[in-house]
Each structure stands twice: as structure tokens, then as C-alpha cells.
């Protein structure tokens, strides 16, 4: 196991971490952390594991950053944001198990190819803006956007990573709602940060997106100097020159992004309306990505916040509900009119046991689970997502009596929903139940 008092030893020969991950080659490293490729031994899925030495984190006063990174990544489920799958800790080390982006850093790509053609820059910039806008809508500001933190997957899709410097709304704010911590990487830092008068986290991220767009198109930085103070002076003045191959539309957008005045700098809405950004693009798709999964989070929030004083300690479903479910009333459109299929079956046991099993089955299949519970004792459920974040299934566990539960499965609309249909869940959950013998099942599935 990777474990020592002062940072982890090298991972070779391959080591098995927590009996679950076979750790392989080093993908990258910073002052306080190393990132390794690893394989989930049972499913064979690739992951990246960030290994942080607690001793070094303590010396660097980094526990705040680590906590912020966990809190930020837990909130953010989006196809263009690296997913945090699990967090482990040993006596000396913290491990973040993350989605693996096979294409590595955009920085490396730019370093080898110099610059990108405009249409490729546009595609990646579209994805970047959808991810950044999504973060902002969830109250998370990245504050360290740069090509090193932009990864690419096997299809060259962008994945935003490294939320170590992210600010979460309310934590870092001064009285007037502005951030005060000096952070970021010098060349990507917005001019208002250098003034140390407080700044708007959304505006500084937009500035950094402007620098990234410039670098993708030009292959070099807009503000550069061998001397740090010289670089800061150039950033504050905002004088830069676009290379000659830059189209007039792109020049216009870059000038709106690299506006030194945060009050007049372009906003996400402005970017979505920009002619260069929109060219040949499905802007509705970008908008959809910005709202990504809000429907699921809203649905969960509504259920979770519905705990009332009259809450029945014993059950979620009455005999009347069961009669309704068994075909007397067709409730199929009740939760989601677009639901393709829904199935219910009975199991014996506790809600948490069934949710644990759902999570285990999902993980083995490489699916992600967003689990929820209505209060400590009420019904529970899980939104199950495929690899691109599309909803595969919505599972809900109702308490029928202290001993019995009804599991309701609703198919999602994602590409993988066909394979992970209600039948799949019924078979995998009930066969597990039989295996464990502790939770026998009365197979009373009914279709509405
Ligand atoms: N380097 C840093 N994080 C990574 C990830 N999640 N996937 C691939 N390479 C990485």
C-alpha cells in the first residue's frame, strides 16, 4: 500500500491500493501531490489517483485547499469536469480517486503542436465555457484556469480539473461579496486581483478563459515578461497583440474577454451571443450543458426538503398507495412524463442496505451514483449516471413496512439506459439478495 510518513513511495512495482486499485504510471506532479494512473481491479476501469502527503499539506498549510477541492468536486457533475469518484485517507496520505482523462493535459498538446486551428479552439472553448458557467451556477469559482488544468479525454473532449484553489461562495467573501485571496498562476491572473481590492470570482475566471483562448490560437501568452513585475505591469495595462492569422471575429471576442475593467468585461451570456463562439455551434447544446443535471439535483432537493413533522416513522407507502401502484391508477407520468419504462418489485431489508447494493452494482458496471435519502429514516434513492453523465436510471426505495421495501426503477434517457433497464436492476438487486440470503425477495414486479 502507498503509505509512508513523508509522502508516498514510487508506485512500481504495481501496488494494490485499498484492495481495489492497481496503481500504475505517474501522470503528473506538483509541490504537494502526485497523480497516478490506476485500474479498478474488478471492473478494469481506468482512474487517476491524486496522492497527497498529509505531512507536506500540513507544512504548506494546504488543508483548506484540500477541503475546498473535495467540496467543489463533490458538487460538480458535468461531462466537461473531471469527476471525483472517491476519497480515501490513510495515516499519512490522502487519495482522490478521479475520472481518468486519457488525452492528458491540453498544455502538453499545445507544447507539442504549437497552436490549434480556430475550429478546434472554438470547440474546446465551447466546452470550457459550458463547464465554467456550470461551476458558477453552483457557486464554485475555479480561480486557477490554465491549460495545465484542462485535460482531454480519448475523444479530445475537454475535462476541467484541479479545484485546489477554487472558492466556494460565502466562505471567502468579504462584506461586499468579493473574494480577497490572492491566487492563480501569474500569467493567467486577472488585473483586478493584482490591485488587491477584492474581486468577483466569475469575472476572474472569464479573464483566464480569455488567456486560454488566446494561447490556444496563438501558441504563446498574451502578457509575458522574464520579470514577474514586468508581466504584472503588462497585465494591468492590458496591451497585447493577436497573431496575424487571428480572424476579425476572434480578435473581437478576445478583446471582450481581456477587458481590464471587470465591470465591462464580457459575461457568460455575452459569450453565448458572440458570433465567433456561435459559429457552426449548437448553442442550445452548450446551454443544455450549462444546466446539466439541474433537473436531477432539483428533484432530489425537493424530495429531501420534504421532511415534515407528520412524517410516518414506519413507512412511505400505505395500502392505498400499493393498490394505486398495482395498476388501479396509472401513475407513470407522475414523476416524469417522459419516463420510458418503470418497474417495481418488493425486497426485504433496510433502505440503506438496498442503496448500498445499488451503489455496488453501479460501480462494478462503471456507472456513477448520486444517492439521496429523505431524512434519516425515510425513503431513499439514487440517480445512476453513465460515463458521459447522462441519466441511466432513477431508482427509488419506499418503505412499505418496517421489514419490506418497494424498489421503483425508472429508465433514463441516456445512451446506456437500454442496457441498464428495469429488468437489469431487478435481476441484479434480487440475485444479490439471494446471494446474501439475508434479504429474500418476493418477486412481485408490476408494470404500470
Ligand atoms: N493528470 C492529472 N489529473 C489527471 C486525470 N484525471 N486524468 C489524466 N491525467 C491527469
Automatic annotation (TrEMBL):
KW Glycoprotein (keyword) present:
no
Instruction: Supply the name of the protein.
Output: non-specific serine/threonine protein kinase
Per the database record, which ranges form the Protein kinase domain? 21-277
Q: What is the lineage of its organism?
A: Eukaryota, Viridiplantae, Streptophyta, Embryophyta, Tracheophyta
MF terms per GO, please? ATP binding; protein serine/threonine kinase activity
Per the UniProt record, one Pfam family is NAF
Q: Where is the NAF domain?
A: 312-336
Q: Which SUPFAM superfamilies does UniProt cross-reference here?
A: Protein kinase-like (PK-like)
**What are the entry keywords?**
ATP-binding, Kinase, Manganese, Nucleotide-binding, Serine/threonine-protein kinase, Transferase
**Catalytic activity, as annotated:** L-threonyl-[protein] + ATP = O-phospho-L-threonyl-[protein] + ADP + H(+); L-seryl-[protein] + ATP = O-phospho-L-seryl-[protein] + ADP + H(+)
Q: Which Gene3D superfamilies match?
A: Kinase associated domain 1, KA1, Phosphorylase Kinase, domain 1, Transferase(Phosphotransferase) domain 1
Q: Is Disulfide bond given among the entry's keywords?
A: no
* CDD domains (UniProt xref): CIPK_C (cd12195)
Residues bound to ATP: 50
Query: What SMART domains does the entry give?
Result: S_TKc
- GO terms, biological process: signal transduction
Superkingdom of this entry's organism?
A: Eukaryota
Entry EC no(s): 2.7.11.1
The entry assigns this protein to a family as follows: Belongs to the protein kinase superfamily. CAMK Ser/Thr protein kinase family. SNF1 subfamily.
